[in-house]
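Bit of a strange request maybe. I'm writing a small parser for structure token strings and I need a real example to test against, not something I typed by hand. Could someone generate the tokens for this chain?
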Amino acid sequence: MRHKFGYKKLNRTSEHRKALIKNMLNSLIKYEQITTTLPKAKVLRPQADKIITLGKLDTLHNTKALISKLQDIKSANKVKKTLAKRYVNRKGGYTRIIKAGFRYGDNAPMAVIEFVDRDIEAKKVDRKKKETSKEIKDKEKQATA
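Reply from user aminoacidic:
Good idea to test on real output. This should exercise your parser:
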């Protein structure tokens, strides 16, 4: 029985734990899929579901609550505009946890946490597009001219 055990502490102070969850939430919203340890994913899952539920009802109060929780306006806007629209007919269960083996080094259990029906292109948000050899040659011609 787990009576009077409110949450997992993850061997961190309360400030560190709150910052960790906030950063993981922002990464999950931005990339829609992240790899982390299994205990962290289990702590993150209910938080992410609550954030999506907040974004589904478009009120000023909920918008301020999202910005307060995430500390990032871009993430809050993505929740309200993209994710809330995607899950408008879903009553809950917006995320899934997939076990991903064990980490080399300390053998920690790893997991992938992702949104259900996620956008596959969201993982490539920060990646720079590789230049083709033709583009490289064009840049060289412009530099010499």
